[in-house]
């Protein structure tokens, strides 16, 4: 049986796409698969609040228990953690802690989306949980899934992860626009080995973060819904 249509979903990219989606009143799902969205999912699954900030200065000045961040994928000197989801999964971070997070791409796009009525962080690890949440709430007329990319350029891992979320939305009756359907097709036909060897993956391997790739590409392993509330992501 074909599911009943429940809403519309589309795909956009980068800071501009996030800002336009927020202005339209849509629910925005920010996707930075390598690695900010995955890192946020890991942290909220452990009961932490994640405060996303655009700049290093904001991270330093934030009222937080820990500071995590990267520039050019490398850990920021003097911070407690980088942007490695595997390292954060293994770290001693008590439930209830606040983690200030700044990254090259993801937190900038989150900032651009901050005016939206609903901002979620999505990746492969929580694609199904996000789709289920958006279906159950149904509070916004439109969902825009935004792939962060890398310094203004498209990235295959973000488009594939966005496609995973859109695929689950489509299965639940959401109508996709043409661009969202193309991204969903890319997800369905992508090769995980190709994603493990794209430009972003090679950069992470050079910096010693190869373990992050397996975690970031694993589907539906963290059934959490990181939602931006009062400036911080919590499990919504």
Question: Tags for this entry?
Answer:
236 residues; alpha/beta; putative 2-phosphosulfolactate phosphatase; five-stranded parallel sheet; four-stranded mixed sheet
Verbal overview:
This protein has 236 residues and is α/β, with parallel strands linked by helices. The protein has one domain (8-229): ComB-like (putative 2-phosphosulfolactate phosphatase), CATH 3.90.1560.10. Helices cover 42% and strands 22% of the residues. It has helices spanning 14-23, 36-45, 56-61, 85-90, 106-113, 127-137, 156-171, 178-189, 192-195, 199-206, 210-217; strands spanning 7-13, 27-31, 49-52, 66-71, 74-75, 98-102, 118-122, 142-147, 174-176, 226-229, 232-235. Helix 1 packs parallel to helix 5.
CATH homologous superfamily identity:
ComB-like
* Computed CA radius of gyration, to the nearest angstrom: 16 Å
What's the story with the biggest beta sheet? Answer: 5 strands, parallel
Count of alpha/pi helices: 11
Q: Compute the number of strand runs.
A: 11
**Class by alpha and beta content:** alpha/beta
- CATH-level-2 architecture: Alpha-Beta Complex
* Shape summary: globular
Element order: H for helix, E for strand: EHEHEHEEHEHEHEHEHHHHEE
Mean pLDDT: 94
